[in-house]
């Protein structure tokens, strides 16, 4: 008779995400993820097959869950622009230090060089931009942005600002990330806001 699973795959992937922040994908070991999750490395092999299988599962979950912070922010905020800022701040929240960001940026190498990882990254990036554009369109409808706001182009600029804010914060160490991100988004959207 098989033993019941006491740790869900989702909990294992969350633990893997934390371990990636500390070690990066290249330095990650199944033993490090197992220690983070409180399971044996054999459990990870049984569930994901290999380190690559685990990393692909992390990438797939990230793509699948891209909309979650946007959905949560919509429920918590009546203002579409407040929801946008809250969603992006929530996406950045797991990053607590420049070193942790470096660990997560190690995935970018996989995303750019491995077609399987790139597929997940492309889905996540596209979905993020769609979610941003939907909130910007809602902001136009709500009168928070001018009626002539170029929502598609502005969504791309917001996404670029988000990514740039992460890297700039990590390099300069100025303030906390959430405050820096909010300031950059406010500056970007200032000229599009209605009076």
TrEMBL record:
Signal peptide residues on this chain, from the entry's feature table: none
Residue ranges of the annotated DNA-binding region, renumbered to this chain: 29-48
UniProt keyword annotations, A-Z: DNA-binding, Repressor, Transcription, Transcription regulation
Record's keyword annotation contains Metal-binding: no
Gene Ontology molecular functions: DNA binding
Transmembrane segments: none
InterPro entries cross-referenced by the UniProt entry: BetI_C, Homeodomain-like_sf, HTH_TetR, Tet_transcr_reg_TetR-rel_C_sf
Pfam families: TetR_C_6, TetR_N
Origin superkingdom: Bacteria
Domain HTH tetR-type: 6-66
PROSITE patterns for this protein: HTH_TETR_2
PANTHER family, per database record: HTH-TYPE TRANSCRIPTIONAL REGULATOR YJDC (PTHR47506:SF1), TRANSCRIPTIONAL REGULATORY PROTEIN (PTHR47506)
Protein name: HTH tetR-type domain-containing protein
Source organism of this protein record: Actinomadura macrotermitis
């Amino acid at each position: 008779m098989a033993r019941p699973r006491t740790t869900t795959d989702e909990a294992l992937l969350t633990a893997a995400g934390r371990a990636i922040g500390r070690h990066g994908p290249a330095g990650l070991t199944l033993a490090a993820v197992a220690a983070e999750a409180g399971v044996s490395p054999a459990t990870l092999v049984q569930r994901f097959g290999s380190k690559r299988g685990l990393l692909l599962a992390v990438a797939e979950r990230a793509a699948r869950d891209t909309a979650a912070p946007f959905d949560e922010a919509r429920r918590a905020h009546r203002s579409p622009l407040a929801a946008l800022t809250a969603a992006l701040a929530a996406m950045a929240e797991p990053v607590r230090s420049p070193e942790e960001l470096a660990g997560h940026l190690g995935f970018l190498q996989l995303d750019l060089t491995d077609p399987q990882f790139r597929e997940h990254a492309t889905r996540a990036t596209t979905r993020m931009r769609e979610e941003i554009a939907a909130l910007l369109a809602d902001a136009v409808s709500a009168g928070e942005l001018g009626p002539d706001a170029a929502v598609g182009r502005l969504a791309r600029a917001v996404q670029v600002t988000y990514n740039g804010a992460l890297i700039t914060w990590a390099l300069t160490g100025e303030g906390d990330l959430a405050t820096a991100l909010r300031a950059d988004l406010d500056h970007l959207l200032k000229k599009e806001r209605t009076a």
